[in-house]
Design brief:
Layout: E1 6-9, E2 16-17, E3 22-26, E4 33-34, E5 45-50, E6 53-58, E7 65-67, E8 76-79, E9 84-87, E10 90-95, H1 112-118, H2 122-125
Parallel strand pairs: 3-4
Antiparallel strand pairs: 1-2, 1-10, 3-5, 5-6, 6-8, 7-9, 9-10
Length: 156
């Protein structure tokens, strides 16, 4: 049996063994790792091994997944040995040996943040809605209302 590592709760508690290369973390009993806390989503996060390293992918959880005390929620992030992972406000240290999981050479790139930044417009990232074009402000020569369009630059 391969030793995939463990999650060690910060502040005490029993360690959680990582029993396979792909694990679903959440509040539901159907999850591989069940965290029975109200602020943990039903399907909170997916942990998976790639190139000998653990990665975490948040599954659009309500309270987010964070890594290494960074206040920013992750979408996908590499978890180096000894990294802190936080599901809602429950923190754990991940302990494993990359060599035991097949790692060779340098760690794989961790470009989840770059994908997150480049995958959205600045307005979307800021949580602002884009203005929808207002068709009533466009000039339509066929419209009977065309004569009622006023020129803002001219004073009446």
């Amino acid at each position: 049996m391969t030793n995939y590592g463990k999650l060690e709760p910060i502040g005490g508690g029993d360690p959680i063994p990582l029993l396979s290369e792909k694990l679903l973390v959440g509040r539901r009993e159907s999850c591989d790792i069940v965290l029975r806390f109200k602020n943990v989503s039903a399907h909170h996060c997916q942990l998976y091994v790639s190139e000998g390293y653990w990665f975490a992918r948040d599954l659009n959880s309500r309270n987010g997944t964070r890594v290494n005390g960074d206040g920013d929620r992750i979408s996908t992030k590499r978890l180096d040995p000894g990294a802190t992972i936080q599901f809602a406000n429950h923190r754990y240290i991940i302990e494993y040996e990359p060599v035991d999981l097949g790692a060779t050479g340098a760690p794989p790139t961790d470009d989840g943040g770059l994908r997150n930044i480049l995958g959205q417009s600045l307005l979307d990232r800021a949580g602002l809605d884009r203005r929808k074009p207002n068709s009533s402000r466009r000039y339509d020569p066929q419209s009977r209302e065309a004569s009622s369009v006023s020129d803002r630059n001219k004073s009446s």
